[in-house]
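Appendix B: complex inputs.
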Amino acid sequence: MSKKKRRTLSHLRLLRGQRKKAGMPPGSVVYTGEQPAVPQPTLFMLMDYDEAVFEERMLINIEQAFDFKMKSTATWINIDGIQDESLISKVGKHFELHPLVQEDIVDTNQRAKMEEYDGYMYMVLRALQYNYETHEVESEQFSLILAKNYIITFQERPGDVFDQIRPRLRGNKGRARRLGCDYLAYSLIDAIVDHYFVILDVFSERLEALEDQLLNNPSHQVLTRIHELKRELTLMRKNIWPLRELVNAMQRTHSPLVSEPTRLYLRDVYDHTIHIMDTIESLRDVVSGMLEIYLSSLSNRMNAVMKVLAVIATIFMPLSFITGVYGMNFHNMPEMSVGWTYPWGFWAVILTVALTMLIIFRKNKWL
Amino acid sequence: MSKKKRRTLSHLRLLRGQRKKAGMPPGSVVYTGEQPAVPQPTLFMLMDYDEAVFEERMLINIEQAFDFKMKSTATWINIDGIQDESLISKVGKHFELHPLVQEDIVDTNQRAKMEEYDGYMYMVLRALQYNYETHEVESEQFSLILAKNYIITFQERPGDVFDQIRPRLRGNKGRARRLGCDYLAYSLIDAIVDHYFVILDVFSERLEALEDQLLNNPSHQVLTRIHELKRELTLMRKNIWPLRELVNAMQRTHSPLVSEPTRLYLRDVYDHTIHIMDTIESLRDVVSGMLEIYLSSLSNRMNAVMKVLAVIATIFMPLSFITGVYGMNFHNMPEMSVGWTYPWGFWAVILTVALTMLIIFRKNKWL
Amino acid sequence: MSKKKRRTLSHLRLLRGQRKKAGMPPGSVVYTGEQPAVPQPTLFMLMDYDEAVFEERMLINIEQAFDFKMKSTATWINIDGIQDESLISKVGKHFELHPLVQEDIVDTNQRAKMEEYDGYMYMVLRALQYNYETHEVESEQFSLILAKNYIITFQERPGDVFDQIRPRLRGNKGRARRLGCDYLAYSLIDAIVDHYFVILDVFSERLEALEDQLLNNPSHQVLTRIHELKRELTLMRKNIWPLRELVNAMQRTHSPLVSEPTRLYLRDVYDHTIHIMDTIESLRDVVSGMLEIYLSSLSNRMNAVMKVLAVIATIFMPLSFITGVYGMNFHNMPEMSVGWTYPWGFWAVILTVALTMLIIFRKNKWL
Amino acid sequence: MSKKKRRTLSHLRLLRGQRKKAGMPPGSVVYTGEQPAVPQPTLFMLMDYDEAVFEERMLINIEQAFDFKMKSTATWINIDGIQDESLISKVGKHFELHPLVQEDIVDTNQRAKMEEYDGYMYMVLRALQYNYETHEVESEQFSLILAKNYIITFQERPGDVFDQIRPRLRGNKGRARRLGCDYLAYSLIDAIVDHYFVILDVFSERLEALEDQLLNNPSHQVLTRIHELKRELTLMRKNIWPLRELVNAMQRTHSPLVSEPTRLYLRDVYDHTIHIMDTIESLRDVVSGMLEIYLSSLSNRMNAVMKVLAVIATIFMPLSFITGVYGMNFHNMPEMSVGWTYPWGFWAVILTVALTMLIIFRKNKWL
Amino acid sequence: MSKKKRRTLSHLRLLRGQRKKAGMPPGSVVYTGEQPAVPQPTLFMLMDYDEAVFEERMLINIEQAFDFKMKSTATWINIDGIQDESLISKVGKHFELHPLVQEDIVDTNQRAKMEEYDGYMYMVLRALQYNYETHEVESEQFSLILAKNYIITFQERPGDVFDQIRPRLRGNKGRARRLGCDYLAYSLIDAIVDHYFVILDVFSERLEALEDQLLNNPSHQVLTRIHELKRELTLMRKNIWPLRELVNAMQRTHSPLVSEPTRLYLRDVYDHTIHIMDTIESLRDVVSGMLEIYLSSLSNRMNAVMKVLAVIATIFMPLSFITGVYGMNFHNMPEMSVGWTYPWGFWAVILTVALTMLIIFRKNKWL
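Resulting structure:
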């Protein structure tokens, strides 16, 4: 149980990085996430494209990407790994990122938000992915710098939800290469939001399984699992709410970085976030209903137990009293010596009393 | 029970189409509804009219409708069946619908919304219909393209709630043919909203039946049925809320597609949606009250059971103690041999004790 | 009980008229209220006045009122009875009322609202009246057409809450005849709102009675009556909320139909509606507290019952065990034949055990 | 108990005045408060001052104050007692108060509000005062007319919370006489708001006492007293909420009646009202927590009782069964005649069974 | 227990200062905090700096700081101790602080707020610090006057959360000395907000410990501690909410006192306050879930106890009845004398009955 708990309270744990940082000057680039057991090298991936040309490269060091800052083609620089604080500072310096942006990139406790700075936008959101092997929801912070000619994205770990976007860029399918950096930014956010649906789908499956258990075999364990699910839904709602604002702000910005056609697509993502909110609310309502049913089933079972007890006591107490009477040693009990009193008389009385009680219970619907 | 549950959680199931689509490029025309066991042909119905002329046709293929795009008369193209994704693309291409609109038409998870595009409006809402045979609420997604001279509507299945609108068009009764496409759009939405009242009426009947059961024979089964009803009301509220916004947006749009007289009628539909919201809230309040009554009736019955148990135990335990005393084998018990102790003395004591207890219980209102 | 229920759910019943109407063209003038057992004739009452002149007439048919449309004096046409749909159409035609207004007048399910049309305002609200004989709240829909020189009011039944307004008009007391139609409209709305206070007063009396019962003799019946009252309060809140908007809209309208002095009076009515809202909230809080007290009193009584049971069992079980011991037939029980064991020894043991138990219970505050 | 109840529901009683007034023409000056057992004379107090001069007078009749209407010095006319409706009309006539203002002054059911009229502002609020003798909160309606050169205040009874304001005026201390009528109005409102803190302080003391009782000796009586306190807090919140709006409206008015320096002070009062709201919310949270603790302590005690019962029954039922066995009269029971079976064998079995049961209970933490 | 309670209700106690002050003229400089057992001397610390120079001094009296008012370098005057009301008046007079500001500085009940005056801003907030020795959260009021060239801060006690800011000023690290007074004000607020995270972290650790206890050994004591934690969270939320408004107001002010670069940093603090709100909400949700689990675990344990009781009674009552039958003294009981009835027949019946009961219980999952 304690392992379970640790997982569900983990979002509160994250605050510890915050404690470490308390009192540091603002703009301090301090990684606050978990340190991996084995240090992971930071990976750099670069895609440079316009409608005509396409280039994809695995970089050895980040400096190789620096020349693309000024190139007029769209460039996507993806950085997997944010533990190396000096690297982030180097990127920040070259691309002229505000110290607070650099701080936020490596502080893995960010709420989703969009901030506009001179010449670029900074977005940060949380990407969720369901791991079908460990049956856990994996979460990582995703930061995105959107400028006129380049996008820089920062992820905590290799592996992401963009596996269906890259081939589209390579194959020049659809609008992907025709529209610029803002459309790419939209595509990335859209992919992240789409994966929220996958998580919710997993949750709703779990909920159905729990509901089956609840109706067939309600136990305290089911209760704790329902509460765990409720917490995860609450957590997810806390993630999606600011994400909605992010998308809305991006859609309504006056910045020239976001073109008109992309805004229409952003409206679509916005609708998706509202749809997710709605689904989370529905699931939470279902969970609340399940808790109510659980509690009333407890009362019902108590009632059933009490009825059995009452029935048994009500039948056997009078009977035992009768046996007690004829177990007394009074010298002058004439019934004792009359021939038919036992077994005929005695058992007739006993059966009459017992049957009368049973009929009364049946009438009151206790049996 | 599990069949029941499946139905009530079905709105969560719908997300699975979403899972299939996760990661696809935006504007992908992918049908996400249920595949019918037997493939259904898509049906096309066309009505072309103005105040003077009226033409109604069953089309063999959608291309037959394409010429009406430019005709100045009002044209209503109704398409029953949206599984054929290529067909929707064909329509989308000819009538210049935005890729996102095409995607939404076949994605049966839409919240009600109204979106304005150049030259047309796109509306999507959920039509509910009560099936008096299966006693189930049937739901389908209804999409509507409103342009100057034509309306295109998309439905999941044949059969709809517009059976009273078509004769009005044919017979040229009332305002139906005098006012243009926007009035037709209004009429369709109005018919859908009116059917929400029918559903609510069915729900309130069910609720009355459940309340009767609850007062006469409260059982755990009634509880689960009340919770089911509560879920369906919640679901319905989730449908009606964005519908209200849709109607409001349509009423307040600056678009010339909606004429002044039609706006007055839209205000009326808007009032209806608020009335529905109110009624749903009333029903939910009633449901909450019923749940409270159920829970307190559980406690009451427990109290009743406990009282019976306590009364029986309190009367017979002392009596059994007395019989126990005179069942003892002490050699020197003088009472045993006094002639009147049994039956007169003994039974007098027994009856006195029992009656005293009964009087006490009666005084304390336990009996 | 079922009669009771029928009354409290009656507001949901009203939807049935709505079901009948579903699918009809907008503007259909269809009466949706209850049909009286005996058909009631429609009554027409006319008052025509300015500061100088005053005329009051009972009309035989509505056509007698038509000439007053153009007269510059203020005219109040009151129509009691809205079952006759053709009559309403006739009035609607002569006074040029929008079809939707005609529809709303006879559809007795309206939420309170105010709608402005060219040349007149349409208001609809619900008038409540307490019937001191049947002890029921009677409710009827009140529609009001406010134009420059006339007011037309529609009521479901004869008998209304305006009995103190008519003498003021007749007697030319106060501002009643000096100020025009808008002041009359205000007076009528004010009278209706004032009667809400009367209803609330009746409710608070009932609540006090219920609270007395709850504290002296809590029963399941009291619970259902509290819930009934809660429902009626909820219903009333649903009525008053849109009424507040109506008054506010009327006060803030740009229409010249409402003069400046009247607006000050409307602000006063607005305050009254807020006061009513507040009182309803207070009563609902009281009701919630009563329900909590009821539930905890159930637990308390259960505790009391359980304690009696536990006390009885704890005292008599050990005692019965002792009698059982000396009822055994072992041949070698030396206590049996010692002279003082019975009654002195035995009863000493019994009393010691019983008293010890009682002292323990007293110490633990169980007795 | 019924006396208690009467007090806590008293705010609902107040509606009865409203019932009496229902249907009267607007602007009717009708006193709706309680009629004192002994008629109280109305008292008039007048203070006239500027920075240089100060005059204080007890008036015999209100006409003596009429001349001060035009005097350029600041004049405070305080009227204690509003039962005399004709007097209020006289004042209203002389100072040109709107009929609705006159009506509100004597209608003691007003929500706090501020209304601007030509040349004056009307404010009404509720003054609370803790009576340390009766331990009750006394409440009276306080009306205030703020004009350029005079303030008229109306109170229900002699005795108020302004005892520290008058000496400041007399002694010309601080800003009191330098700043004009608006500062005086502010001072009066500030004094009333400050006394809310006193009431809340009394409430929090009571709450502490109740919490002590709840932890040491939870009883149903404590519950009802907690609910009473909750009601009083709710009532107080209902009073303070519109008061906040009053202060805010006064601070933001465009009227020249309120000078700039006074506005700064009003911001301070506004902060106080928010602070009071916060404190009320805190107290309500504490109350809710106490109710939860009470309910779970009920369950806990029930558990304790049940455990005792179960322990006693589980120990003595098997023991009684054993004694029953050896009380049987079978002829052929060899154990009976073996010498050591009683007392050694029998009592060994009895003690073994009893101790085993006790050890099991101890292990399961039931004892 | 009573010591505990005193602490958690302490925020309500604070109102007592308010009671003392009720009725005093506005602007009265009255210290409302606790009087320390031993009077503490007030400490004055001064830092004067710009990018080039830095001076730090411990002052003997406040007059030594007065000359810095006009100096163009940034000056930070920190005052530890606000019990000395005359001192505050002296400072207020020299630096021309509004009387209401002086009043608020020494009134330790302030909600966080920011107020703009001519030439300076006044901010007040609550600084929390976790004392790792007493395991208590220490709270003090922090007031800040921000002017062009100086900052004056007032704290209740020596010792604060700024230990990491001073070295940065001394060492001229980062932006601290380059940016002016507004950046220093931001730094101080940021440090206070950062410490809220520390407190929350401590709370979440406590919560985990409580959750462990709840799952392993639920007791009434855990319940009261959960409620205490809930209260502290509620209190903290009440603190952070106005703090959020303070930061927002400071960020959006039109005042030239706050420079553009500092505003970006304030946006960052604003995000932190929202993050804290979110975390508090999460913790409150966790607490609510824990309370629900606690209550249902009570019901579960009750069920377990009742089942044991029912099982014991159901098995032994019939058995005792049988022994009762054969303990009767009827003369004519043929079973008595048949040789095999005891022990074979009797014990076979007893075991059959007992085993049948056990099998039934096992089937119904009671055992």
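Chain C touches chain D through 68 residues (CB under 8 Å).
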